Every structure is written in structure tokens, then in C-alpha cells.
């Protein structure tokens, strides 16, 4: 280790919270994680970095080597694909609550690449995290902070993935958890997780945004730690996916990274991670980070088109991609800045486009939940627009595991999804639909089905 | 690298298939993977090892170092937690079909340890594999062999996990897949995976054993590669979980490893892996490997008690732990030998014991599917019997992810599971049951629920 290493190890020693609008710096946030002066969002900053910027180049090679070395260790902090990058994270003196999150694979999607019209397509699958979604990477940081600050209860409003993750980490850390979910609007699999991990789960007759409003009021009145993505520590953990991705690409920066947009915390986090890597000279330039939304939950699209990116245009969210059914995204301003900083675009895709894209990702042997598939559907649009060139390197961020929403998949294959699709759309959907066949329990019957499948495949 | 390394790299050069009963050696198996002479099971053997056994001690330290070094690589074979151990696997010249399987975490289960009455309890979570079950570790090997042998179709009979895994790997490798499942008897999540990955899925009005009988006949009559666990290459991949576990324990052998028993391929595979580690002097002694079954699918229990371990006592399987609902386990003879070789026990547990154990594993923030929870339920019995001592190190093998069967979890919490449970059982179950509460969408209403929960918690 060189002398730069010691300086580096100190990097995370001090962090502060800073308002993204008025610049107010705080040591500790109020319960609802808003700037006490102007009410805007907070972000985590590391004042020590600025003092040490002369050492940046030393750190760069040191950090990469240190992070790499940790991968052979089974020690808790090293084995975590989040805490392995702890030089760029808040220090948690009490010890971290970890489920060995991160370390997610990058898959090739050859069939999806052909369908989108690009030469090579990669997917960083955050759905391979322990509870099946990218939320785990942020939860390990925020919930470790919660315990350090002495809370015994944590809470979130959720479309499902956040509550599953929070409940698991709370259970791991010996904390109790409260979940507010919109009645009847979250996928079963996700609800089953919160219950299994012992969360106190309340279904409210409102939407996600309504749940979040109630919770924000609740944390002001009761000592309970807010774990929605307005909590900037969540985003600190989530930013590590960008670091890990670049490491997996041997620090070769792709031209494009494409991410789903719901509450917009994830694109904000990934953007922050990329900008920090650039600032510390760990990468030479920024990839374009683009955000894709469902047409029925397109608040960021409208914020940019109608509000010029200056004011939020909230919508009444409706999409079968439940993980991004959010109409009033809390991190919209951070997301707008990331799009500006990286030169990415924001697009929207239809329900049928999502369903087809999800099926294509499945046929590559990878699979994902519907919200993740907006990335491939959006890529197709960006290629058609000429924004993505066929020879450029594109990485899709898949945010949730296929098993997060089996109902959607079954409905799709049973033709119960999108029954009113237009003729052209229905043809696209039908290409991938494969309901299970009921076959007589005899060898001859199965053999006939098999031969029929071989024949129709050969005829194509 | 020492001179031993080259010899080691050659270790997997030649493998053969050998009948476990009559010892017949084959270069290539018939379609149904049975000994052509006596009809018994085959296993993969490595004749080169015997010739080189003098070098074993050199290999031992070399292998451990080589395997460790590979963990920092993102190259496909090194990044796989199976192929990283390729010196102990068949060589696949055509390149492997991998989804970055293996690399699964070992979690502490402090609450479950208290409940079982042991000091410390670890769980190796094979449900953290890409498709959510341990099947992936075997599938990557067997399906790579299938492609190398020139097959364009693969097939399996399945209670769900095998089909999900097979379909994913087939899609990855550009092969087509046929799945036979018992109508109405597999968990939805698993079915949705097979469909999403594009498998030709046939529901037959019979049970798992009936599906397997039909498929065995089918592969004799049609060029389609059989991927049930009678395929010994599946077991070769699955054995790597034992190697990886020992590596994670820094090669300190635990006293006990406990695994669920359905078709009995997994305990056979883990046993084979442990015995090979011992033979190559990579570990100094064997842990006791015990197998736990559901009472309603207790073929191995009865085979040992009524058949003296000499003849299979098949049963009509019935349990809500669908992944082990198998009455005619194909690998029973291999399993009996593993129990004998390691000194492990075989036990059975009730449906209520499974449900409670599953809930306890969830409360530790880990979670699993019902079949995995038999391990904890079984451990409690083994402790009561005095077979497991409180200070001994125990590792449970959790085989499937919580998200594999959300219906079971929801039914449990909604009190729809085991409605006829006896009074004592119901009290145990109710301890963990937490149906979602329907709460008015108002801060005050949520606050009341929260205060009530704090009060009842404090009262305990």
C-alpha cells in the first residue's frame, strides 16, 4: 500500500448532509429528511474529499486495487458489494447490517440486442440482490445509520420492493418495521416478503403517494426512522451499483446506461455514483444515463416537457409495472440534474411495449420484473430516435427479479394481460405467449406435442 | 504456482460414468442415465485422480489458492461459483452455459439458533442462485454437457424448481426445453419462470413421479436430453456447494450439515463433494450430513426404518412443501450411502413444524421456501434426540428463495394454512402470523396501530 492509502481510508471519516437547492449543510437531518431552511432534498457529501483533491490520482489506482482485493474475503463488510466500496460511503461506527447485498452479475442479452438493433447489450441485474431488488443496496446503508442513531423502529411507504427489503434488514438488525402499502396495488410476492420478515404491515385505501404523505407526517410526530428514498443514505448505498458496474467493465465507460424511473431515487443514486467516480478520476468521462418511465406513470417525462425541468408535473399513476407506479416522484429534481449532467434522455413506453420487452429479456434466460423491462422497451425508442447508435455499448439496469411478480407473468402467458391491445400489439405479444398445455398423462400425447413444436419451430 | 499445479489442471481431463452398484464404467450414458448392465444409478468418476494420489497434498494447498484467486475475476468460468472449482468437474470443451450461479452467502440465524437450542447456527442459502434455487448449480454443468453432446432439446419432470432452472439455462445456451409438471401441484412463481424463459410446458394429470416415468420413456424414443437428477452431471455441479461452503468456513469442518430430502439428489451431491474433498485431503474429516423430509413425503425415512436401507419404500407424497413432494426418490441409494459414510441421520417433520421453522428463518431476516425450512424443523428434533450438541457447529442448507412460493407465505399469515392444526400447534403458528392490517388512510389511524404494537411488544 502506498502513502495515498491512508489518506484514502480516511475519506469517509466525515460526511455531512447538504440541501441540493440552497446548499445548507447539516450534521443530522430532521425526521422527514428535508432541508429545514427551504424544504428541498438533502444529499450526502464528503467535505474531506475537497481538502484532499490533490491526492486524487493516488487514490484512484489504490482504491481500485483495494476494492478488488476485498473480493476474496468472506468478512461481512468485504463480502458486501456495497460496503466493499466503503471509502465512498458514510462511516457506520456501530457495525453494518448486511445481507451480502450487491455483487450482482452483468449478463449478455443477445436476443434483446437484436430486437433493439444494437450490436451488444449488457444487463446489470440488481434483482439478484438478496430480497430480489436493487433496494437492498440502499437499505443496508440507511438501516445501519438508523441503528447507529438509536432508532428501534423503521418505516416506509412502498409499492412492495422497499418494504420487502426494509423488513429483511430490520429483522437482521434487530429493529422493528412498519410498512404502509396501497391496498390491492402491490405484487403478492413482495407482500409475502414483508410479512415473512415480521413487518407490521398496514394496507391503506390510497395510492403510493398517499401512503408516503401519511408516513411523512407520522415520522414528525413519532420516533420512527423514515426509509423511503427521500432518505439520502438509501441513495448512497444504491450509488455503489454504478461503481460495481464500472469495475465489472474493467473501468471502460459504456456510452449508455438505462434505468427505470419511478420515484427516481435510483437514477439519482447511480448518477451521483458516476459523478463521484469522475470527480475522483476513477473514470475518464461520464456515460449518458437515461431514464425510462411507463406512459401511465410519466411524471418525469411531463416535468421535462411541460415544466421545463423546473417544476414537478405530478400525475395519477397507473401501470401494471407496480414497482414504478408512482405519480409524485420525490427525487425528480435530482433526476433532472443527472440527466443534464450526463446528457441522458427521458422517455416513456406503453404497457404493451413493457410486456414484450419483459418477454424478450426472459427469452435471453435472464428474466426480470415488469418495471425493469421498461429499460429495453425504452432502448428500442432511443435507437429509433438515433440517440443510441448500434455500435455503442449499452447497459440496462434491471431492478427486480422475475420472481417478484409471478402474477404478471402468468397473466401475460394466459392472455389475461392487455386484453384490449390493438391488432399489431397483440401480434407482438402473442409471439412470446406460451400458456402451459394440458396434456394427457401418456408418452404418446407428450411426443405429439413435442413433434408439433419441432415442426412449427422448423417452419419459422 | 508450483509443479503440482499443472498436474492439478489436468485433473478433470478425463471423467467416466460408473454404476454405483455393479461398477460398470461407461464413456457415455444411455438416454435415461441408467447402467445398461444392472439398471442402477450412474455417478461421475475421475480416473486420473487415482493415478496422481501421491500428489494430493501438493494439490490441496494449490487448489485452495487457485480457487481463491479466481474470485477476483469477472471472467465467465471464474465468476461462476460452480466452474471456479472446475478441477473437480467434467471438462466441457465447447464452453459452459452459465448464469453466474453459486457464490451463495452463508448467513447467521441467531433467532433460529435460540429456538433450536444451539449456540450458533449458519445457513448456506442456495436460494440466492440466479433462478432462486440450488438447481442452478447442477444445471450449469448438465446443460453444458447436453450442448457439447449435440442436443438441441432438453427436458425434465419437475415440481417447479428444476423446470425454472432448466428453462433459464436452455434459453441462455440457445437450446429448447420441454417441461412436464403435475397439474395444479407446483408453486405459481416457479411455473411463471418456466413460461417466461420460453419452455414448452405440459401439465399432466399425474404426480411428479408419474411425470418422470413418462419422460424416461420419452427420452428413449426421441433425441431429447434428460435433465432430472438421475443425470449425474447435475449432481456434479451441486456438489460444489459443499466445496464453496467449506471455503467460506476457512476449511474448518462443521460438525453437522443438514439438508432437505425430496428426490435426494442434493444430499447425494453434497455428500459426494464432501467425500471428494476428504479424499483429496482438502479437509481432515467429514461433517455429519443429515437429511430431513416432510412426514407426508418420507420415502427415505421409511426406506431406512422398514427397508433397512436396502430397498426403496416408495410413498404417495403429500406436503405443502412442494419442492420435496416426491414419493419415489431416484437417488435414494446414493443418499443411504452418504448417510452411512458421514454418520448423518434421517428425520421427518410435520407440516406445522415446517411452517413454524419457515417463519423463524424469516424472522432472522433471511427467509426461504417451505422445503428449505425442514432443515431447521429437523435440527430441533436432532437436538432433542441429543444427536446434535448445543455447542456443535451446524450449517443448514436452504435450497430455495422465499419468493419461490409467496402463496404459501400469504396463506400462512392469513391463517388459511393448516386450518385443522391442533391447539398447541396453532399457538406456535399464531406466534408468527401477521396478516396485513386494513387501516384508514389517516395519520392518526396508523399512529394508533403503531402504539398498539409497541405496547403489546413491551408487554411480552
Defining traits:
homodimer, 13% strand, 6-stranded mixed sheet, 4-stranded parallel sheet, 14 strands, alpha/beta, disordered N terminus, 460 residues
Short synopsis of the structure:
2 copies of one chain form a homodimer. By secondary structure, chain A is α/β, with parallel strands linked by helices. The first copy, chain A, is 43% helix and 13% strand.
The main β sheet of chain A shows up as: 6 strands, mixed
Measured distance between first and last alpha carbons of chain A: 60 Å
Give the integer mean of the pLDDT values of chain A: 92
> How helical, in percent, are the residues of chain A?
40-55%
Looking at the chains present, what oligomeric state does this protein adopt? homodimer
Chart the SSEs and their pairings.
The structure is a homodimer of 460-residue chains.
Chain A: H1 3-9, E1 16-19, E2 25-26, E3 42-45, H2 47-51, H3 56-70, H4 76-79, E4 106-108, H5 110-116, E5 121-125, H6 135-148, E6 153-157, H7 161-173, E7 176-182, H8 188-196, E8 200-204, H9 208-221, E9 225-226, H10 232-238, H11 240-248, E10 256-260, H12 265-279, E11 288-294, H13 299-305, H14 332-342, E12 346-349, H15 351-363, H16 370-384, E13 394-398, H17 406-413, H18 423-432, E14 437-439, H19 443-459
Parallel strand pairs in A: 5-13, 6-7, 6-9, 7-8, 10-11, 10-13, 11-12
Antiparallel strand pairs in A: 1-2, 1-3, 4-5
Walk me through this protein's architecture:
- The structure is a homodimer of 460-residue chains.
- Chain A has helices at 3-9, 47-51, 56-70, 76-79, 110-116, 135-148, 161-173, 188-196, 208-221, 232-238, 240-248, 265-279, 299-305, 332-342, 351-363, 370-384, 406-413, 423-432, 443-459; strands at 16-19, 25-26, 42-45, 106-108, 121-125, 153-157, 176-182, 200-204, 225-226, 256-260, 288-294, 346-349, 394-398, 437-439.
- With 460 residues, chain A is an alpha/beta fold.
- In chain A, the strands form three sheets. In chain A, strands 4-5-13-10-11-12 form a six-stranded mixed β-sheet, with helices on both faces. In chain A, strands 8-7-6-9 form a four-stranded parallel β-sheet. A three-stranded antiparallel β-sheet of chain A has the order 2-1-3.
- The longest helix of chain A has 17 residues, at 443-459.
- Chains A and B meet through helix 7, strand 7, helix 8, strand 8 and helix 9 of A and helix 7, strand 7, helix 8, strand 8 and helix 9 of B.
- Strand 14 of chain A pairs parallel with strand 8 (200-204) of chain B.
Amino acid at each position: 500500500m502506498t502513502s495515498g492509502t491512508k489518506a484514502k481510508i480516511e475519506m469517509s471519516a466525515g460526511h455531512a448532509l447538504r440541501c441540493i437547492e440552497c446548499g445548507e449543510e447539516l450534521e443530522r437531518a430532521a425526521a422527514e429528511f428535508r432541508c429545514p431552511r427551504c424544504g428541498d432534498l438533502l444529499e450526502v457529501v464528503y467535505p474531506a474529499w475537497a481538502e484532499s483533491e490533490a491526492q486524487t490520482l493516488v487514490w484512484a489506482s489504490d482504491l481500485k486495487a483495494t476494492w478488488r482485493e476485498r473480493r476474496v474475503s468472506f468478512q461481512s463488510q468485504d463480502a458486501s458489494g456495497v460496503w466493499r466500496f466503503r471509502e465512498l460511503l458514510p462511516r457506520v461506527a456501530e457495525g453494518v447490517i448486511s445481507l451480502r447485498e450487491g455483487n450482482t452479475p452483468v449478463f449478455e442479452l443477445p436476443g434483446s440486442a437484436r430486437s433493439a438493433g444494437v450490436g451488444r447489450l449488457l444487463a446489470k441485474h440488481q434483482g439478484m440482490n438478496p430480497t430480489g431488488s436493487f433496494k437492498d443496496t440502499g437499505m443496508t446503508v440507511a438501516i445501519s445509520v438508523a441503528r447507529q442513531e438509536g432508532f428501534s423502529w423503521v418505516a416506509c411507504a412502498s409499492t412492495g420492493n422497499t418494504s420487502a427489503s426494509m423488513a429483511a434488514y430490520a429483522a437482521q438488525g434487530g429493529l422493528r418495521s412498519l410498512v404502509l402499502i396501497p391496498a390491492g396495488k402491490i405484487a403478492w410476492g413482495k407482500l409475502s416478503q414483508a410479512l415473512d420478515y415480521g413487518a407490521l404491515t398496514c394496507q391503506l385505501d390510497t395510492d403510493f403517494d398517499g401512503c408516503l404523505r401519511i408516513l411523512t407526517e407520522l415520522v414528525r410526530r413519532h420516533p420512527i426512522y423514515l426509509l423511503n428514498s427521500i432518505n439520502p443514505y438509501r441513495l448512497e448505498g444504491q450509488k455503489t451499483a454504478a461503481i460495481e458496474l464500472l469495475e465489472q467493465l474493467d473501468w471502460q465507460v459504456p456510452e449508455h446506461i438505462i434505468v427505470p424511473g419511478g420515484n427516481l431515487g435510483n437514477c439519482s443514486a447511480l448518477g451521483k455514483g458516476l459523478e463521484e467516480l469522475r470527480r475522483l478520476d476513477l473514470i475518464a468521462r461520464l456515460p449518458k444515463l437515461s431514464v425510462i418511465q411507463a406512459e401511465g406513470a410519466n411524471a418525469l417525462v411531463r416535468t421535462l416537457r411541460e415544466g421545463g425541468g423546473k417544476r414537478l408535473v405530478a400525475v395519477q399513476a397507473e401501470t401494471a409495472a407496480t414497482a414504478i407506479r408512482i405519480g409524485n416522484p420525490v427525487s425528480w429534481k435530482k433526476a433532472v440534474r443527472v440527466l443534464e449532467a450526463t446528457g441522458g434522455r427521458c422517455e416513456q413506453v406503453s404497457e404493451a411495449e413493457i410486456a414484450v420487452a419483459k418477454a424478450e429479456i426472459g427469452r435471453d434466460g435472464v428474466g426480470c420484473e415488469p418495471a425493469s423491462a421498461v429499460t429495453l422497451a425504452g432502448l428500442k425508442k432511443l435507437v429509433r430516435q438515433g440517440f443510441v447508435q448500434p455500435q455503442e455499448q449499452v447497459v440496462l439496469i434491471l431492478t427486480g427479479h422475475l420472481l417478484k411478480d409471478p402474477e404478471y407473468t402468468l397473466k401475460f402467458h394466459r392472455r389475461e394481460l392487455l386484453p384490449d391491445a390493438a391488432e399489431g400489439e397483440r401480434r407482438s405479444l402473442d409471439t412470446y405467449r406460451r400458456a402451459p398445455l394440458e396434456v394427457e398423462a401418456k408418452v404418446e400425447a407428450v411426443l405429439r406435442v413435442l413433434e408439433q413444436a419441432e415442426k412449427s419451430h422448423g417452419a419459422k
